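If your schedule permits, I should be very grateful for your opinion on a structural question. Kindly check, if you would, that the fold set down in the tokens agrees with what the sequence suggests. Thank you for your consideration; the sequence and its tokens are set out here:
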Amino acid sequence: MKECLKGRAELGVYGELIAATFLQRLGYQVFLSVGSHGPADVVARRNGKTRAFDVKICRTTVTGKARKDKSLQLTKEQKRDGVELFLVSKEGEVVAWGS
């Protein structure tokens, strides 16, 4: 699938769909932010608790961990609002998620 992706926006949507599928498999109700202009890309709800995630595509190390990159950080506003980071590799693997 990733071979067909041409731009940054398409890669972002790809990551959001990976995150949404992962969360659905864990029993969350998942809502995607159309256009992603808000503080969160994915909102997930389970057992009465709502969580908001900013999904980022990242490069990984040989061991499968996210490479350190300043772009893989939440803004002050996102932190204040309780948004959590959700990292997906370019290969489509969930690297890390949650607080």
In short: Residues 8-25 form the longest helix (18 residues). The chain has one domain: 2-97.
